[in-house]
Amino acid sequence: MAKNDAYTTQMQMVAELEMEMMSDMYRRMTDACEQKCIPTHYHEGDLTKGESVCLDRCVAKYLDVHEKLGKVLTNMSQQDEKAIQQLQ
Question: Which intervals of the chain form a coiled coil (predicted)?
Fold first, then answer.
């Protein structure tokens, strides 16, 4: 039963870390895309078409890079895990 509790605790920690990382990624993406696409002085209450298109593209690129980077890091982690298992 102790192993099951430890596993549950570990999975909760992983879930919390993942939420924290996603929140950080969202914050950084929002800051970067807002700075790039929305001027500091604006005259309209709504986004212009150009601003909206810029934001769409910025977010799409940011998420694409995040996904590709995640795949690379997962692959590296799996390779490291295999190497550690071979050493044991």
Answer: none
